[in-house]
Here is the input.
Amino acid sequence: MKHPVPKQKTSSPRGKTRYGAFKNVVLKRLKNQTNLIVCDSCGAKKLTHRVCPECGKYRGRVVINKQKKVDKITKIKA
Here is the structure.
C-alpha cells in the first residue's frame, strides 16, 4: 500500500498561519486561568502562594500585620 503524499509543498506562510492560530487558542485559554484559593484564616479569595491581602497571613503565620495602624506623615518637621 502506498502512503498519501501531498500534491504540493506547504508554503512557509501557510504553515506559520496554521501554527499561529493554534498558538492563539492556547494563549487565550491560559490567559483567562487564574488559581484562586480560599484563605484558611479569614475565608477571603487569594492567589496561590501569596500573602492574603485581607488578613496578611501566609501558611498560618502573620507576615503583614494588618492590625497595626500606619500613621502617615502629613506635616514636614523642620
User: Anything to note?
Assistant: The mean pLDDT is 86. The beta strands are 36-38, 45-47, 57-58, 61-62. Residues 34-67 form one domain.
